[in-house]
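Tutorial sheet, problem 5. The three components below are modelled jointly, 1031 residues in total.
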Amino acid sequence: MLFFSFFKTLVDQEVTLKNDIELKGTLKSVDQFLNLKLDNISCSNESKYPHLTSVRNIFIRGSTVRYVYLNKNMVDTNLLQDAARREAMTEKK
Amino acid sequence: MSPLLKDYLGQRIVIITTEGECYVATLEGYDKSVNLLLSNVRRRSDDELLSIALTLRGSEVVVCGLLSNNEVGKLGEEVPALKDTKNKVQDEYLIWEEVLKARLIK
Amino acid sequence: MSFFGFDTSGNQAKDRDGRDIQKPLDFEDTYKGLGDYDNEEEDFLNAETFGATAEFGTDFDFGHGNGGNEPANNANSYATASRSYVAAASSGVEHQPQATLDASVDLKPMESLWSSSGPVIQQQEQPQVLSMEELERQQRQRQMGGQPGFMGMPPPNYGMPPPPQMQMHNQYPGPFPPQGMQGIPPQFQHMPVMFNQGQPQAQGIPNQAQFSPMYQPQLHNQGEGQGLPSEQAGQGASPAPQALESPIPAPPALSPQPQQQQQLQHPMSPPQMISPPHTPREHGRQSRGQSRREPLTAEEQKRLQIRQAKVEKILRHSGLMTPRDKDFITRYQLSQIVTDDPYNEDFYFQVYKIIQRGGVVGESNKDLIARAYLEHSGHRLGGRYKRADVALQRMQSQVEKAVTVAKERPQKSKDHSDAAREGVLGKISSAMNSKAPRRQLQIPVHKTGDESAIADDNSSGKASRGSTPALNVVTQSLEKVEISQQSRARRRSSYAFTSVDQSSVLSRSGGRKFVLSLIETVYEEVLELEAQLRGGSNIDSTALWEALHIGDESYEVCPFISMLSFDKGIKIMPRIFNFLNNGQKLKLLQTFFGELSHLNIIIISSYKTNASPTESQLKQIELFQAVFLKIIVSFLSSSANFIEIMGLLLYLIKNNNVSFISTSKIGLNLITVLISRAALIRQDINRSNVLSSPEISAWNEVYDKLFTSLETKLSLVFPPKEYTDKVVRTTLGSVSGSPPVIAASPQHYDQAYIWQFLASLALSGKLNHQRIIIDEIRDEIFGTINVAEELGKGQEDQPASQYKKDKLYQDLNLFLNVMGLVARDGEITELK
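Model answer (structure tokens):
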């Protein structure tokens, strides 16, 4: 649940996804499989991959995402460490 | 059940699969593993009708994009092919052979 | 998807004679596990790919103490990360009624999630929390009890059944709620209508009233007539009864086909399956399409018809599931997104949101929980934009305060001191004096009485020893200073710099792996305690205390000391301190000061053992100052009494090679903190005369020990030029891209901490001590004055160098002021 929890904090933030097609858009929602939904997407290599022209709103299956670029100040690393520890603790139990 | 695809129900969507195929289809249904039930499935590049109805395994789905204004979305013939997302490793079996050997030695 | 695992093969239970037993299917028997998430294909390779065979351990270290070639951003993380905690904590933590943290109070969060089904839902709450099993049991009971439908269901459960536990979690941020709603298949949204047809007044009416006016005009205004705003359609459930009675308004522009279909539909469907609940959905669908484009083109109309036809097709199967089935599924689904403890499963999100919001007004009590977390987890690293030198500033102000008090003190024997000073510094016009031959120390022939006073103190101290138990301890250990075997071994080991090799220190305290996993254990204990605190239960910090291994004799070097070798070990300290009582804190600090020589941070901050510190090491030093030094300062100034401070100082002197420690920045800082605090207390107490004479004598003795160990090595506290140059260069490298001003005016190593140390040392000393200090560091004094004058000469127009000159004088004068002197414009004069 940690990543689900984590991505929820990024809602309404701009993120860039990369699975060869690089997408940039506003994260609208995320579910427990880390499927993502972006709004106002733009494709940074659209000339190469025009497949998503005239698509603004997109659903991405979480399992196919390779990277999500995050702005550094959108992440509270200390808190994230704590959250990860808690997660590990609950799994241990 | 993933609520994320709900908005797309009954709409024309663009689907990119792990094979690197790109379709336009109407989303009829889905489940939580993103298995999709599609109708009127057309190839994105030439708008050729591929199937009237189709189920697509969720594990094959990369993205589903909502086609603005439900336009036809034909792109033209010269669209470059997408890469698949399988990350095939060249001569992967050789690697596994090595792994196995290493294990046997252990 | 086979939700019920319904076996269509007809494989029914048979009794012994092979006859079929027509048993109703039980959910318990058929449902198990079928809703679980399928494995991805080739998941079985994951272990190979991600190396799952590797042990998942706790002995990791991502800090910057590690090899030194880690990227700088790593080092920055603590600073950036810290901001939010403090920001959130500082905003309004003061009103913090623990009592309101009761989980049942927190209803608001879920409101946002379910708001689309109307605020009425919040009216009531069901206090007990249902587990999945309980839900199913209820379900079965209802089935068996033959209750008609769900008439018995409590009102809050309809619309969207919000099991009470859900109300505690704001699972979804702002934009999410409507989707959470939509996540439930549309037909479920209409269930309540069916359940509650017996008591429709409960919810349907108000909503309906609000609904219909908007509904009607739209029908007439738009040519197509079906344009419902989609949100209203989304609210779906309530208008259903109305839709049931009124025929579906067909758009005039539409061809009659869909309507005909619909009319056909009605007779075909069994009564309870009649489409009414579904009609709104149909509307919703159409309206969604329509709200996007106003006029319908012929093509679009066609498509609309097709879609409607499809909808009809779907409706044909609409009766397959009974309301009970639907309700069960809804509950099942809800139970999966719901947890008893959002802070367990959704910790990051919950706390992050609160932090980001900064506890804005208007947010309901849900953030009290998070605030409680923040408050008790400590405000961690200081402040939003505060830098590492906060602790130093605090220490400096402590020294300054002490100096000021000393300045104000009427000088009883002014003549004496003047004469003495004259001998040491000479009659100075300093411009040339750095090259002037060093004068002999002129000890005034006329006895000042200081020495005899000390002697008196000693004797009287011995006479009245043991007046208080704590003091007893101090004085007893004073005697042991010279003889303690163990400490001698320690001193030798540190003197031989065996501690320089960090790995050897670690191995002497159980090994690197052990220490790292120990830190994780400590983290776990702290998180556990913080959770207990949030839950309002009694906290028991004994496990934490044991995890710290303080006073553990089984290792040569206390593991606690080695914990401080890692960034994450340092960072957790403030939160540990939140859970320790005063005695434990004191014990912890005793251990800390006692084993200072083994402390990695001392070793890397000493120019003797680490002549060329790397950038990451400097960052680590900074972190240590920002976090741990700060704790020590605040502990000393708030909780520690004079004897305790004395004891700590004694531990330091007894077990360590003080002159080595004084060559490190951190070590010097630590000594400064102790003696300046002691000086302040003495000043305070001098006024009210509370300090007993044994205490004074004990202090004098401790001070003498300290001084003796530093004597003749005082000039060594100043790092050599090569070292300071290196540090300056490294620091500059880390802030590359800073303005070019720096290139024009060479940076200087900030020696303020050294002058602070000397000032507090002089402050506590007698006149003869002061004389010795001045004598030993005379060259440094004049050197500093020279540098300042050089700065002033060349670039008077440059504010930067002017500032630096002032800074140098300011630092120097902090020390000189103690002796009633002041350096100004290249001259040392008497302080007026």
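Marking note: Chain B touches chain C through 16 residues (CB under 8 Å). Full credit if you identified this.
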